[in-house]
Amino acid sequence: MFSNEKVDIGSLDVIFNRMIETITSSKSDIFIISEQSRSSFEELKEELEFIKQKIKLIIDESDDLEQRTKLAKLRLVEVSKYFNQYTEEQVREAYENANDLQIRLSLTRSEEKRLREKRDDLERRLKSLYDTIERAEHIVDQVNVVLNYLTTDLKNVSLALENAKIKQDFGIKIIAAQEKERKRLSREIHDGPAQMMANVLMRSNLIERTYKEKGMEQAIKEIAELKKTVRNALSEVRRIIYDLRPMALDDLGIVPTLKKYLSTIMEYNPGVQIHFQTFSDEKRLPSDYEVSIFRLVQESVNNAIKHGKSPDIWVKIEWLREQVSILVKDNGTGFDKKTAREHSFGIIGMKERVDLLKGTMQIQSSPGNGTSILFKVPLPEKIQTIEN
Predict the structure, then answer these.
(1) Are the C-beta atoms of 34 and 137 separated by less than 8 Å?
(2) Strands 312-319 and 360-365, how do they pair?
(3) Which residues are CB-neighbours of 162 under 8 A, at least 6 positions away?
(4) Which residues, in sequence order, are bridge partners of residue 375?
(5) What CA–CA distance (Å, rounded) separates 351 from 375?
(6) Phi, psi of 268 (to 5 degrees)
(7) What percent of the chain has pLDDT above 70?
(8) Strands, E, within 198-319: which ranges?
(9) What average pLDDT does range 40-59 have in this prediction?
(10) φ/ψ of residue 2, rounded to 5
């Protein structure tokens, strides 16, 4: 229950909007850090790949120099051993070549060591950047969770308060509608069947006089007119009863009852064509389910005719293993869902009825493009068990 104090919904919206703006801004900053880290990560990856290629080349060069150095040393040993067999120039050349190769090998190994150290440093930096990126993405995910919570749950506090007021208004509207419906039924019975029955009573009193004064033929004509009046009165009574609760539901089920109802609607609304289709085999449902489905179709069709001015209406029912889908579509004037929600107690009533059945309702409509309403009602578990 809500207190009698007035809740400033606008202030709540301002607070929530500021919270969301702050968190969104922080999320953007974290995202920028993450992207900068990712960019640095890619640059370091390229540098690491380049260093690895250089290491590979310098290892090959080092292996070649090592092999050549060994040969040069063997040559120097040979020249030194047989010193008298070689000229001074050959001895100097062997010595200088071995010394040069040794120096180059030493420099190459130093460069290889430096490159390996740089490679190891790059790999450590890459791992650190990767951890930073992972943490940033984790924080962004957590921020998204918070934002979703604020925008879907807490953000809907004002909407919940507004809906509570709408439901309260809806309850008052229901009471008013009940009184209005009682007055309508009273007026329909008074102006329709009651007047017809009074007319039957009056004309039945005249039949005997007509017989005496004008003969059998005229009396038979009066009886024929009387029968016509009685038939019309019976039709009106049946229509009123049908509007209250179609008796055929209990006996025949939802599909035959809807066929008869939609056919009757077309009779009372010349120029309106209702196209009814059903897919798969009909399942008999508990009474409250069938009544609810009937009322959902009834309300949708009435809205299409009364508000949508629709010349064509399509009603389709599809029986699935776990649910029944009901589509009511028209080519009428349509409406703006944003502005209609506050004032359409018919839509609220349908939503309440669908919620009681734990189903869903989807409305697609826009001005000039007709309306499509899809109801999905899960079948009772015992019905599903039988099917399975």
Answers:
(1) yes
(2) unpaired
(3) 9
(4) 326, 361
(5) 10
(6) -80, -15
(7) 74
(8) 273-279, 312-319
(9) 87
(10) -100, 150
